[in-house]
Amino acid sequence: MNVKLLKSTKDAEKTCAVAARLCYSASTIDNIDENLTSEKVIDLLGKVISSGHHSVLEHASFTFGVEGVSRALLAQLTRHRIASFSVQSQRYVKFKSGLDFVFPPTIKKDEKLLKKYNSFLKNTKNLYKEFLDAGIPAEDARYILPNAAATQIIITMNARELRHFFSLRCCNRAQWEIKDMARRMLNLARKEAPLLFEDAGPDCARKGCHETFACGKPWKS
Ligand SMILES: Cc1cc2nc3c(=O)[nH]c(=O)nc-3n(C[C@H](O)[C@H](O)[C@H](O)COP(=O)(O)OP(=O)(O)OC[C@H]3O[C@@H](n4cnc5c(N)ncnc54)[C@H](O)[C@@H]3O)c2cc1C
After folding, report:
1. Does residue 208 have a pLDDT over 80?
2. HSE toward the beta carbon, residue 105, CA cutoff 13 A
């Protein structure tokens, strides 16, 4: 899996701090960012984050490029509705130079089952090629592809939605692949805008755990 932060709002922290200041001051738009020192940015963001006034975080957005993840991950990711996605098309892309698949660690470490998994994927690749060679359009040949098929995605979320996404998907109990991706995204977002994401992560990083079947291990980033 490869996860990159491709773009983000310029001065993301300051942009959100300006929005917060607007809510609580008599300043006009022309002087809204006057004397907005880094100390004031820290103070404003600290206040809105701890008070739950998270709508101001919607003014900063982050765009990630992700490759080498499965269609199983994609199905979970796209349940997040306050986000924009662009996904490599299985209709238009004919994977003539080869299909890639994701290998779950539990299967990888079981020699016998790994052999069966490899053999299944090899048969899938051969059948997919046979269908394309016979003139079946890629949009129909893809029906035989499993959840393991690898894909590439561009994801854009604003900081509020990212914090929500991280609270669900960085959790120890989240499914391993989306958890791996979410944790990489969190590290990148934190590097770019630490004030927006320093306390982001599963609920146990801030308050109590919400999980019915709690893992019992407080999360460490
Ligand atoms: C551990 C785990 C297990 C899961 N298991 C299943 C499962 O078995 N079956 C299944 O179908 N899904 C499952 N899901 C997916 C889950 O139900 C959500 O679809 C997914 O996590 C997206 O979360 P969300 O709706 O909070 O977030 P988003 O879509 O990212 O939305 C963010 C927030 O915006 C608000 N919002 C968005 N849309 C609306 C709306 N229409 N009305 C009101 N408020 C809205 C809500 O406050 C929401 O929390 C699971 C998720 C997790 C983390």
Report:
1. no
2. 4
> Which tens digit of pLDDT belongs to each residue from 14-69?
999 999 999 988 888 988 888 899 999 999 999 999 999 999 999 999 999 999 99
Averaged pLDDT for residues 196-217: 79
* pTM of the shown model: 0.93
Distance CA 82, CA 117 (A): 35
Residue type, 75: A
Q: How far is the CA of 74 from the centre of ligand 1 (A)?
A: 14
Q: Is the CB of 82 under 6 A from ligand 1?
A: yes
169 belongs to the catalytic site: yes
User: Of 81, 169, 181, which is best to mutate to test ligand 1, by the most ligand atoms within 8 angstroms of its C-beta?
Assistant: 81
| Domains in the chain, CATH or no CATH each | 2-85+150-205 (3.30.1360.170), 91-144 (no CATH)
* Torsion 5-170-77-193 (CA) sign: negative
How far is residue 187's CA from residue 181's CA, in Å, rounded to a whole number? 10
Is the shortest distance between the CB of 168 and ligand 1 below 6 Å? yes
> What is the tens place of the pLDDT at every residue in 109-139?
999 999 999 999 999 999 999 999 999 999 9
